[in-house]
Design a protein that fits this description.
The chain has 17 helices and no strands. By secondary structure, the chain is mostly helical. It has one domain. It is globular. The N and C termini lie far apart (41 Å).
C-alpha cells in the first residue's frame, strides 16, 4: 500500500507543479474584491486537477499492475467506475477554477449528478442511521437509502469548499479524515477501502508541498470536490460493508465541515441572505481576523501570507477534536452522538466568543 501512496504523491506533485507554472494567467481572472479572498497576488487555483490526477493514477495502478502486487484486492473496473462517477463534479469544479463562470446552481447540479451516478455504479446506499424508525423507513421505501447516500455524497464537496479558505487548511483536514478512515478500514479488514483513501492522502500531500506554507497554488473548487466526494464515498461504503462500524462514525469524523455548512446556512437565512451568497463570516475567517492578527507581532501582521499560514493550525486542532474521538469510539454509537453534541456546543460557544471579542488571552497568545 505504501507504493500506491508514493505513486499518488509523485504524480500529484509533478502535476501541481506543471499547473502552477502554466496557469498563472488564469489566476488574474479571479476578482480581488471577493469577500473570501485573504491572499495577495494572483495564485492559480488548479491544485485540484493535480490531486485528481494523482489519486486516479494510484487507483488505476492498484488494479493494472500484475496480480495484485499491493495486496489490496482492488479490481481496475471498480476504480475506473469510481473515477467515471467523480468526473462530472470534479471537472465542473475545475472549469469554475479556470473561468469563474460556472454558477453555484450548475455546480450543485453536477455534484448531485455525480453522486447519483456513483450510487448507481457502485451500488451505494444508506440503511443505518442509529435511529430505528428512520432505519426501517430506509429499508422499506424503495430507493430511499440510495437517495440518502446521494445526498451525503453531493453535500460533502460543498462543505469542504466552505472550509477551504487558507493555506493547508482543507487539505490537512482531508488528510486527517482519510487517515482515520484508513485506520478503521484496516481494523475491519478492508484493505481496498484503506488503499482508496490513502491514495488520496498521497495526492493531497503532493499538493500541500506547494500550497503550505508558501501558498503558490490553491486547490480551488476542483480540489474541494475531490476531497469531499472521495471521502463521502469511502464512509458510505465503510458503513454499508461493515455492520460493526457505527453510522455515527462518519458523522463525528466530518462534523467540522458539515456543521460549518449548516451553521452558515442558518446564519445567512437569519440575516435574510441567500445561503449561496459568499461572505467573510465563517469560523476560520473570524480566527484569521480576530485571533491570529492579535497573536503575532505588529511587523508580521503586515504580511498577509504570515497571517494566512498561522490561521490553519488553529483549525487543525479544532478538527482534531472530532477526529480523535471518532477513531477511538468508531463502533460505539451513543458515545459518538455525545461527542457530536459536544463539538456543536463548543463550535457555537467559540463562535459567539470571537464575535463578541471575549476570547481568552491564552488563546490569543
Amino acid at each position: 500500500m505504501l507504493a500506491l501512496i508514493v505513486i499518488s504523491f509523485l504524480v500529484a506533485a509533478v502535476a501541481v507543479l506543471f499547473f502552477m507554472r502554466r496557469a498563472r494567467r488564469h489566476a488574474r481572472r479571479y476578482g480581488s474584491d471577493m469577500p473570501q479572498r485573504f491572499h495577495a497576488g494572483h495564485v492559480p487555483r488548479l491544485g485540484g486537477a493535480g490531486i485528481f490526477l494523482g489519486t486516479g493514477v494510484g487507483w488505476l495502478a492498484a488494479g493494472l499492475i500484475g496480480e495484485d502486487p499491493f495486496n489490496v484486492s482492488w479490481p481496475v473496473k471498480v476504480s475506473g467506475l469510481t473515477l467515471l462517477g467523480l468526473a462530472p463534479a470534479v471537472l465542473g469544479g475545475i472549469a469554475e477554477d479556470l473561468t469563474q463562470r460556472v454558477s453555484v446552481r450548475y455546480r450543485l447540479a453536477l455534484t448531485a449528478g455525480s453522486a447519483l451516478l456513483l450510487c448507481w455504479l457502485l451500488g451505494l446506499f444508506v440503511q443505518r442511521t442509529g435511529f430505528e424508525s428512520v432505519d426501517m423507513l430506509l429499508r422499506t421505501v424503495p430507493y430511499a437509502g440510495l437517495l440518502f447516500a446521494a445526498f451525503a455524497i453531493a453535500g460533502l464537496p460543498h462543505a469542504f469548499n466552505i472550509i477551504d479558505g487558507y493555506n493547508g487548511l482543507a487539505g490537512t483536514v482531508a488528510v486527517l479524515v482519510c487517515l482515520a478512515i484508513s485506520h478503521v478500514a484496516l481494523q475491519v479488514g478492508d484493505r481496498q477501502l484503506a488503499a482508496m483513501v490513502m491514495c488520496l492522502v498521497g495526492a493531497t500531500a503532493g499538493f500541500l508541498m506547494w500550497n503550505y506554507p508558501r501558498g503558490k497554488i490553491f486547490a480551488g473548487d476542483g480540489g474541494a470536490y475531490v476531497w469531499g466526494m472521495v471521502i463521502a464515498v469511502a464512509v458510505v461504503t465503510l458503513v454499508q460493508r461493515h455492520p460493526q462500524v457505527s453510522p455515527w462514525f462518519p458523522m463525528l469524523l466530518l462534523i467540522y465541515p458539515v456543521w460549518e455548512t449548516m451553521f452558515s446556512i442558518y446564519r445567512k437565512l437569519a440575516r435574510g441572505q441567500s445561503p449561496g451568497t459568499a461572505d467573510a463570516l465563517h469560523f476560520h475567517q473570524l480566527i484569521f481576523r480576530r485571533i491570529v492578527r492579535a497573536a503575532i507581532a505588529d511587523d508580521e501582521a503586515r504580511t498577509l501570507l504570515a497571517r494566512n499560514n498561522r490561521t490553519s493550525p488553529y483549525l487543525w486542532g479544532f478538527a482534531a477534536m472530532s477526529v480523535v474521538p471518532a477513531v477511538l469510539f468508531w463502533n460505539n454509537t451513543p458515545v459518538l452522538m455525545l461527542f457530536c453534541l459536544v463539538f456543536v456546543a463548543t463550535y457555537v460557544t467559540s463562535y459567539l466568543m470571537i464575535v463578541r471579542f471575549k476570547v481568552p488571552r491564552w488563546v490569543r497568545h
